[in-house]
Amino acid sequence: MNKVKKVLVLTGGGDCPGLNAVIRGIAKRARKEKNWEVYGSIEAFNGVLNEPQQIIRLTSKKTAGIHVKGGTILKTTNKSNPLKFPLRQKNGTIKEVDRSDELVEKINALGFDAVINIGGDGSQKISKALHQKGLNIVGVPKTIDNDLSATEMTFGFQTAVQIATDSFDKLVTTAESHHRVMIMEVMGRDAGWIALHTAIAGGAEICLIPEIAYDVQKLVKRIDARYKAGKGFVNVVIAEGAKPKDGTIVARAGEQGSEHVRLGGVAFQLSKQLKDAGCTAEIRETVLGHIQRGGTPTAFDRVLASLFGVKAMELVIHGEFGKMVALKNNSITYVSLEEATREYNFVNKDSYLVKAAKGLGISFGD
């Protein structure tokens, strides 16, 4: 009889529609092998590092039907980087310590033959570092921002765009009714994919993204021209990381233990900039925030996430560690973790997508 093997699954970073579909895909594929058991670590690596440990068996009962649910049944956190683990000191301050060697030892001591790490750019950099320390690990790309260059698409992105577009459509009607400028802020710390796709899908007049710094005066001219033409309303999509040519992003300190500053509020900054620059139209702001991360994943994301889950488990079964599953040329394949983390997936301002948006009359303020 074959020895029973164990794989540990975890979800790290921000939550994302489709995470549960990946978990289910892994578990269902593993059960076909008969000699594999699947476990989950609660709150990413915290489930292993915490005392007592929080690790659960992912039985068929626990994973049944979860592909239609948003979020993750394993919970998640962006405060469990084992390379820079935040430990609270007696005086209340936070000190970052490297617990990666301890983590690898604990995983091995628990008898796990492999780990599947579902996460974005930061999570896969952790996967790469742990693999270099000898851990058998496979990565699954996850981010609503679509900012991993080694895969053509990350699950969660299409759902986020659909949510943003649905919201934008509703703002268009109220903007037209009141002859207002409506500014909708979406997520996108360093990459403007959500904003760009939403702008095209929703028919925005203005789209502001982190990759293209905007000129406020040019935006005012565009808005004035729109009103003079008798249209009487303007809809703007702005990514949270967008910035003016002569300014910086809107950010504030993140929570203790988090590696990121908190973005948000750029819609209100833009509103003030437009008014200060002479825009006389009424302006209203909407910040979608975490609404984009929640809810039921679209059919596309359920399919992509499920395929990623099955492929990740197959890589584990065949001993293909140090890899990340990816979508390339409409096929599910894999790349090395080195390639997966080599380049960030920025919007190329010279790409056809941007040129087509401009061809549709969308202004980027450049």
Kindly describe this structure:
- This protein is elongated.
- It has 366 residues and is an alpha/beta fold.
- It contains 12 helices and 15 strands.
- Helices cover 36% and strands 19% of the residues.
- The longest helix has 22 residues.
- The model has no long low-confidence stretch (mean pLDDT 91).
- The protein starts with a strand and ends in a 7-residue tail after the last helix.
Which labels suit this protein?
four-stranded parallel beta sheet; alpha/beta; 36% helix; 2 domains; Rossmann fold; 15 strands; 366 residues
- Tally of separate domains: 2
Q: How large a portion of the residues is in β-strands, by DSSP E?
A: 15-25%
Instruction: Specify the overall morphology.
Output: elongated
Number of helices: 12
What is the H/E order? EHEHEHEEHEHEHEHEHEEEHEHEEHH
Helix content, binned percent: 25-40%
Q: Strand order, main sheet: write it out.
A: 3-2-1-6-7-14-15
In total, how many beta strands?
A: 15
Would you tell me which CATH topology of the largest domain applies?
Rossmann fold
Low-confidence stretches: none
- CATH top level of the largest domain is Alpha Beta
Mean pLDDT across every amino acid position: 91
What structural class results from the helix and strand content? alpha/beta
What integer value in Å does the Rg equal?
A: 22 Å
Report the sheet with the most strands, covering strand number, pairing sense and barrel closure: 7 strands, mixed
How far is the first residue's CA from the last residue's CA? 66 Å
The CATH architecture of the largest domain can be given as 3-Layer(aba) Sandwich
